[in-house]
Design goal:
Blueprint lengths: L1 E6 L3 E5 L4 E5 L2 E2 L16 E4 L2 E5 L1 H6 L3 E2 L10 H14 L4 E10 L7 H8 L1 E7 L5 E12 L2 H8 L14 E7 L4 E7 L2 E2 L5 E3 L3 H15 L7 H10 L1 E4 L2 E4 L4 H19 L7 E5 L3 H11 L3 E3 L6 H10 L4
Parallel strand pairs: 1-8, 8-10, 11-17, 17-18
Antiparallel strand pairs: 1-2, 2-3, 4-6, 4-7, 5-6, 5-9, 9-10, 11-12, 12-13, 12-14, 15-16
Helix pairs in contact: 4-9, 7-8
């Protein structure tokens, strides 16, 4: 199985030729719902090395204690490995699978490439509730800078061959994730290091500011992070059965867009040398339009949340 996985601080995205999956990059104690009309069909309850974890959205909703890491060293943590293996279990139900894998790291953390390779390479055994045990043998792995996935997704076809030659020129990528925004400049599908950087700014910064804004509007309302993300998308919140509009959300989004564009101008100047600028990541839905107004050759890619993982999967087609 060839797979592309993009494990961000906010969510993990997982892709093969026939399946896509995404869930929150969080694990928690295995506290299960006592009853659900729909049963536990979407729940990820995974046992790795003798320890059981709820993973993803089911952990956010049900676990009493959550483990979510937002630091550089989380790639060496137990949570990172559990999220990765849970993602592979979403891609296939087969008992034994050989996996050729491509994944990514934030630009500023790319020096941790060997850590990720060592963490993931080899044989992993898991037991997912309601299934037979699974064995994943990761025999080949390649780690690339995270935003390169977006460029690869646009430039390569599904066999991993160059399908869009015009994207082999000078291209910029703005990949807005949960904790980091990766800004990449490439020429002939090769990174230009002097014009590439990560900044510690992302969607969770907006979520935290939204929490403060809501505390002023509805002081007694307590929402978890995934509920705040829904409020941000809807631009309104439901309180005691009634909707309350939140028109001041633009007051949160504009400063973030300004900070990203300011960093871009420091790196790329006017950016007129770039043929195209690709905007991806979950934050593309939030500030993508604002960035497009500042850079006329910029566009939000299709499926911006999955863009990196799709590009990783296309590159995995070359791992034969």
């Amino acid at each position: 199985m060839q797979a592309g996985i993009d494990i961000g601080y906010n969510a993990g995205k997982f892709v093969t030729d026939s399946r896509r999956a995404s869930f929150a990059s969080v694990v928690g104690t295995p506290t299960r719902q006592r009853f659900s009309v729909n049963g536990h069909q979407n729940e990820i309850l995974l046992t790795v090395a003798g320890q059981s974890w709820l993973v993803g959205d089911s952990a956010v909703e049900n676990s009493r204690f959550l483990k979510r890491r937002e630091d550089r060293h989380w790639v060496d943590s137990e949570e990172y490995l559990v999220v990765a293996l849970a993602g592979l279990s979403e891609l296939t139900t087969a008992n034994g699978v050989e996996v050729k894998l491509v994944t990514g790291l934030p630009v500023n953390y790319f020096a941790d490439k060997s850590t990720v390779e060592q963490r993931l390479r080899g044989e992993h055994r898991v037991q997912r509730a309601g299934r037979n045990a699974q064995r994943f043998s990761i025999t080949d792995i390649r780690v690339v800078p995270q935003p390169f996935g977006t460029l690869l997704n646009e430039a390569l076809d599904q066999r991993g061959n160059l399908g869009q030659p015009e994207l082999a020129g000078r291209v910029g990528v703005i990949d807005i994730g949960g904790k980091t925004t990766n800004i990449l400049s490439a020429n002939k599908l090769a990174e230009l290091p002097g014009e590439t950087v990560s900044i510690n700014l992302g969607g969770w910064d907006i979520i935290r500011q939204l929490r403060e804004q809501l505390a002023e509007v509805v002081p007694d309302l307590e929402l978890r992070d995934h509920e705040l993300a829904a409020v941000l998308r809807e631009r309104r919140v439901r309180v005691a059965g009634e909707w309350i509009d939140l028109p001041k959300i633009d007051d949160i989004l504009t400063p973030m867009a300004d900070q990203v564009s300011g960093t871009i101008q420091q790196l790329w100047g006017s950016a007129l040398r770039l043929d195209v600028i690709l905007i991806s990541g979950g934050g593309a839905h939030l500030i993508g339009d604002r960035l497009r107004q500042q850079f006329k050759q910029a566009r939000v890619v299709k499926s911006p949340v999955y863009a990196n993982a799709l590009g990783f999967w296309k590159l995995s087609q070359r791992l034969r």
